[in-house]
Structure formats: C-alpha cells, structure tokens
Amino acid sequence: MYNRIYRCWFNTMMVFFIIVCNSSFVTAFASDIKIGVVNTEKILRESIPAIQAQKKIEQEFVPRDEDIKKMAMKAKKLQDRLEQDNTIMEESERRNLERNLANLSREYQRAQKQMREDLSVRQNEEYSMVLERTNQAISKIAENENYDLILQLQDSVYRSQRIDITDKVIKALNNE
User: Fold this and answer.
1) Packing angle of the helix pair 166-174, 48-84 (nearest 10 deg)
2) CA 108, 114, 118, 124 torsion: positive or negative?
C-alpha cells in the first residue's frame, strides 16, 4: 500500500515537474521570437505608390467615363422627348425614337460593363506591382530588424501596436 501511494505521489510530482519545465522552456523560447504584423489594406490606401497608382488609373479612364456620361445624357434627352411629345408624335417617329433609345441603352450598358472589367484588370495590375514593392520593403525590414515572422493580416480580432509594423512599411515605400 505504501509503495502504491509513493508511486502515485512520485508520478504526480514528475508530471508537475515536466509541466513546469516545459512551460519555462516555451516561455524562454517565445521571448526570442520576434513577430511583426502588416495591414496590406492600409498600405494600399495610404502609401504614396498606391495613391499614385490610383491616380494613374483614374487618369486613364477619364475619357471613357466622359463618353459613357455623354451616352447617358443622350439617352435622357431621347427619353424626355419621347415622354413630352408622345401624344403629338406620329407612330413611326415614336417607334424610331424607342428603337434608338433601346439601342443606346444597350450600348451604354455594354460600355459600362466593359469599363468596369477593364478598370478591374488595371487595378489588379497596378496593385500587384505595389504589393510586390511592399513585399520587398517587408523583407528589408525583416532582415534589418531581425524579425522571425511577419504576417499580413487584414481582419485580425486583436493585434498589439507593439508588433504592427504597417507604418514602418508605408514609410519605407514612401522613401523609395
């Protein structure tokens, strides 16, 4: 009986000792790890290269946007004329106006859809170049400041400002 109690006590103490040793090891090991967090969404909103890319895209699409607005104004004028002169207009003239309005409406929708698709492609191209430069800046910061791990987080529930290096990355991009 005494031997059994001693073994149980000894096993319990060994488990406790292992737990204490492991937690000390993990704590000592964790203190040597340096982790950083980057918010790429903020970088794409606030860094100079991202802002310049957005302005460049906007300038490229201004002429197409103006053409689409002209189409919309032309369609509005046709619609207004159709509504105002509907009672005094001949049947053939009214049908021609309706046909022209339908054609213009289809052309307008097609132009809008094409512009949205082209805009999306251009944004992806420009932002991929900005993200490539961002990754290079992150790598330089990681090497210079001896980071073991840098994560790109968008929607983290919580992160300490102590490990958030987003502003450092933005500053590095802006200084390029």
Assistant:
1) 90
2) positive
